[in-house]
Amino acid sequence: MIEPSKHQPDPRTQRDAIDAGDFVSAATGARVRRLTMPDGTHWFPAVDVCKQLGHTNPQKALSDHVPGDHRDNLETLTGGYGLGIPAGREWRRDLNVISLQGLILLVGACTKPECAPFKQWVAEVIETIQREGSYTLDEAEVQPAGPGAPIAYAMPEQIADSIVRLEERNLHADEQLAVAQQKSLALQQQMVDTQQTMLETQQQMVQTQQQMVEMQRVGLVAQQAMAQAMERIANRLDALSVEHPAPSATAFETHPTTESVLADWRERLSVTADVWTVAVVIAPVLVEEGELRQPLEAIAARTGLSVQRVNDCLRLLRRHACIRPQGATEDGAPVYVLNQR
């Protein structure tokens, strides 16, 4: 560290009359990054200052308003004091920095209304020096206690007003940020709820699909069982026809049996599996009771066919003179009897 001159105050114990951060806040209306050197001088990134003051071209602003002895690049400046580059990606080696005087010069060239109170105070300082030969800050009402304590000065009114406005703006910005964060949290919660609902819906869809697959499997098993049962019936009937040949027409007319009726029907038409299923169900009833008074729904329940398909099968048996209608029941269901030859 550079040792202070015997004729200069020791920067290690020297205290700024106005806090550099407050001073810059009053000048620019914002808090900007700052480097304080071992000799007590302050340097600021030119890009930060230009951004706050509305200078769109920092290089041009520096060349137009800041002399070379009040600006430098970060690597040269820190190298002169034997210091390292501050940590962080934004502190580049080629970063242009300006001194406090350079900052004041840029403020003087700024046309933003926010800079007017600070420039007015600077003009007041110059006018006071021209008129009285010096400018002195008023001492603060409360002074620090202790031997050798530095004198505390009251902040100029223009700077204090700028700091108050800055803090109010920061407070308002904090409130807006808090509201935005609450809205963001609420939105995130809605997204979580929506995702949960979507997940539950997907689970329900998967369960429904599984149920449909199971129903299809059960239906397929039922169809296979029905086909096997019909095949067994057909085989049994074929065996009966071999063991018991069809009776003569006279015997059929006198004493019909289930086997003789079915054998007669097989001679009259080429039946499909559905028709044969209906025939096997109604033939015993016609033989034993002499007529068929069962509703179509009952026959459909016993055969596993639809009511419409049962009706079609009965119509086919009628067309081939296997059965014939004979009135109807009280409920309106048709009554069938054997059509004997």
From TrEMBL:
* Keywords, alphabetical: Coiled coil
UniProt name for this protein: Bro-N domain-containing protein
Region of interest: Disordered: 1-20
SMART domains named in the record:
Bro-N (SM01040)
Q: Where are the transmembrane segments?
A: none
List, as start-end ranges, the regions of compositional bias called Basic and acidic residues: 1-18
Sequence ranges assigned to domain Bro-N in this UniProt record: 15-133
Q: Which organism is it from?
A: Streptomyces ossamyceticus
Q: What is the lineage of its organism?
A: Bacteria, Bacillati, Actinomycetota, Actinomycetes, Kitasatosporales
Provide the coiled-coil residue spans.
163-218
